[in-house]
Amino acid sequence: MQLTDQEMCILDGKEGDIKALAMSYLVKLGNAFDGQEMVDIAYAHMSSGSALREGEIDYLAELADQDARVVVPTSSEVIPVDLRDPDAVGAPWPLVAEHRRLLGIQKRMGIASTYTCVPFTQGYVPAKGTYIASMETAAIIYFNSVLGAKTNRCGYFVLYAALTGKYPKIGYLLDENRKGSHLVAIDTELDGTTDYGAAGYYVGSIVGSGVPVFEGIYQPRQEELMVLGSALATSGTVAMYHITGVTPDAPTTEGAFGGNPIQEKIVVTKKELDEVYQKLHTAKNFDVDFVYLGCPQYTVDQIRNVAALLDGRRVHTNTTLWIGTNRMAFAMAERMGYHEIIKKAGGVLVCDTCPMLSFLRLDALEKQGLSGPAYRTMLTDSPKQAKYANNTIGCDIILDKIDVCIESAVIGKWRG
User: Fold this and answer.
1) Are 51 and 87 in contact (CB under 8 A)?
2) What is the pTM of this model?
């Protein structure tokens, strides 16, 4: 890689050993992918570190003790517990204590403890064309596709990018890699977020790491685009998509492909959507003891909808209802009275965490000396949660739409 004088100064240790170490890792990454130069990033979204993964929090503590500080605005990913109200979700207190220690470490390093998979709903909205570094598939694909910012699936290299403000110009930071590869025709009505997720899950399983271009989607809501992207990145490794006339790099279908040939045309009908619902259904009976909504984390408008569906009702005594969200949406839900309605109904508005990354994981239960799974059957409105929770927390899965999820939480059964 060709480094600037300033970048060479960082690499040579003239701005400290920590930044030199971080730059050395970024140079190695760039060389591995034939990168030619570094770019300045304007923002980073990084892993928070988890006590469920050996040594992660201790490593961040070591960096903080050496005065490591991020040099760009930096938000952080979900953690295994809800630090706002650990008792409401039954989080084990040793794990809570470790992540309260993490909170202090992040403050020292200048990292915002957002604990979210959707930082763009909390004010982190990089402009079109901005170079950034992000982990978390739901965030990466939204940044690239809907906002037109430029990021890769950066993994733990985000930390080093945040410490230096640099990242190698590789992958989706290069315009030639952001052009469309597959044409997708939506030939059915997509009724709400779960249908968008089912369409994304079907397409992602075909295109792999390609860049699908969608036709037939008009005026989608933000939440629908969030779920579409997260599902694309779950069944495939999609990091970017285009929607003709909607997303910033696709004023026309031809413009989205940018001269690339169409590798394949994919048609999505109701049949394909139904197949996804069936494929992700692993439950053997209709009794539901866990309903989870909010993957990606719910916006305040989605919380408003849950409150309206639950108002005056009560969650079944044999069923746990969690609605995952972030602190900013929670604060507004509390101000508007939605939290009180959900709490009165027996539901829990959960911040900071997500079941498939939480203390409910089978490996986390084992470390606590507990047998698993914690729940037998999860009903969710998210294809991403349905896919991963089946393996990570070990419960059977049912995928269905929000109104069915709430009805099932109240009666304790899914009626199909």
Assistant:
1) no
2) 0.97
